[in-house]
Design brief:
By secondary structure, this protein is mainly alpha-helical. 51% of the residues lie in helices and 0% in strands.
């Protein structure tokens, strides 16, 4: 598929590397680490001790974390089919 100065399979390898990088970034963001905070960084409310024990490195209370998760779920993905409809989004 690749042409010119690139070797065969270079485009595919670049796509695969981009996907791996994105997956690692998402996993790093989803897995808290370190010491849990006693109060939420968003609203300042105390984080229950049971939550701090179960989720190491937690920084948000349940309500704020649910809002963050909902915001991430709304993020649209990339449609790589190249259709006209995907280019309009």
């Amino acid at each position: 598929m690749a042409g010119g100065w690139s070797r065969d399979g270079a485009v595919h390898e670049q796509i695969e590397d981009s996907i791996k990088d994105e997956l690692m970034r998402i996993q790093a963001r989803q897995q808290p680490h370190g010491e849990s905070l006693s109060h939420c960084v968003e609203c300042g409310e105390p984080i229950p001790e049971k939550r701090r024990e179960l989720v190491p490195g937690v920084t948000h209370c349940v309500e704020c974390q649910q809002e963050r998760d909902a915001d991430l779920a709304q993020r649209g993905g990339i449609n790589r089919r190249g259709s006209k409809d995907s280019q309009l989004k």
